[in-house]
Amino acid sequence: MTQRPVRARPPSTFTKVRRVADRGVYDRAAIDAVLDAATYATVAHVIGQRPVATPTLHWRIGDRVYWHGSVASRMLKSHQAPSDVCLTAMIFDGWVLARSAFNHTVNYRSVLCFGRPEPVDDIAEKTRVLKVFMDHWFPGRWERLRPVNKRELGATAIYSIPLTEASAKIRDGGVGDPAKDLHWPVWAGVVPVTERLGRPVADAGVSADLKPPAMPRLRRRGPLRNV
Ligand SMILES: Cc1cc2nc3c(=O)[nH]c(=O)nc-3n(C[C@H](O)[C@H](O)[C@H](O)COP(=O)(O)OP(=O)(O)OC[C@H]3O[C@@H](n4cnc5c(N)ncnc54)[C@H](O)[C@@H]3O)c2cc1C
User: Fold this and answer.
1) For residue 82, how many other CB atoms are within 10 A of its CB?
2) What are the pLDDT digits (tens) for 39-89?
3) If you measure from the C-alpha of residue 149 to the centroid of ligand 1, how many angstroms do you get, rounded to a whole number?
4) Minimum CA distance residue for ligand 1 atom 35
5) Residue 51, H or E segment
């Protein structure tokens, strides 16, 4: 997504990664890259006294990350109360198999963002941000679709938080076995994991001259590097 990137802020006491601190990244470009590449996120919020972590689609526009759903959604209704949420997005890049159970780990890119959700109520703004969302995954598709109508926009709630308090954590590497374990006779290494597109299946009635959309973002995805 194309908007003026904001420079990294130093982490707050809350967003500073403490556990394996050298995996913490606070650079906005890195945070944006994870948010833009991750297919979905989890919005953690509190309903009554209980924590709820709801998986949902998300998208970023400039300095904010958005999510949407039915106005009847319990999650989206809960944002009407002034209460912070934590949005987590993650990409699983690979299994890291060591020579001992203890040293097994995974390669990943993850982001946690904290903030107070703000609604998008204006109809024109709703239309704009939904188009950005569609175009992020399916460039050019919005313009080809039957136009969205007022009833549909009214039934859709959209919220966002600013990317002012966010952290990324990234592991990208090989096996970290100590020298004393290297002789142990078991396979060790990295098994990359990628999310791939399957073969599109056309709906009934779609004429043969209509082609499925290109999804360049998913095609481009994968581990930061193959180990
Ligand atoms: C796919 C995957 C699998 C994982 N598996 C495990 C596991 O099995 N066991 C385990 O202990 N941990 C696992 N982690 C790491 C886990 O997400 C936490 O980073 C870790 O448990 C430390 O948590 P903490 O509460 O001590 O974090 P702290 O370091 O105390 O967190 C402080 C702040 O650092 C930031 N932060 C912490 N973790 C992340 C993160 N993952 N991404 C972005 N920002 C972060 C947040 O802003 C947080 O408020 C996994 C992560 C991923 C993405």
Assistant:
1) 7
2) 999 999 999 889 999 999 999 999 999 999 999 999 999 999 889 999 999
3) 41
4) 17
5) strand 50-56
Give the β-pairing of 118-119 and 156-162: antiparallel
Ligand 1, atom 14, lies closest to the CA of: 106
**Tens-digit pLDDT profile for residues 118-142:** 999 999 999 999 999 999 999 999 9
Tokens of 106: 């995974």
| β-pair type (156-162, 105-115) | unpaired
pLDDT in tens, 187-207: 999 999 998 888 899 999 999
Cα distance between residue 78 and residue 48, in whole Å: 9
The CATH classification number of 21-92+108-172 equals: 2.30.110.10
Considering the entire predicted model, what is its pTM? 0.92
- Going by alpha carbons, the residue nearest to atom 47 of ligand 1 is 15
**Number of neighbours of residue 194 by Cβ within 10 angstroms:** 13
Residue ranges lining ligand 1, Cβ < 6 Å: 14-19, 90, 92, 106, 108, 110-112, 167-169
- Could you tell me if 110 and 37 are in contact, meaning their C-beta atoms sit under 8 angstroms apart? no
